[in-house]
Design a protein that fits this description.
Blueprint (H helix, E strand, L loop, with lengths): L1 H27 L20
């Protein structure tokens, strides 16, 4: 039984680290807006 508790605690600690890393990324990283260009082939545009 103690090995099961150790395993659950290990999973909880790893989950907390992952959650903390994701939270830190949302706080400290700002996306940079930029323009994008998508080229369409002329046969993809149907004017009728």
């Amino acid at each position: 039984m103690p090995s099961l508790i150790r395993f659950i605690v290990l999973l909880a600690v790893l989950g907390g680290i992952v959650f903390g890393a994701m939270f830190a990324l949302t706080i400290f990283v700002e996306p940079k807006p930029r323009e994008i260009q998508v080229r369409l082939p002329s046969n993809a545009i149907d004017l009728n």
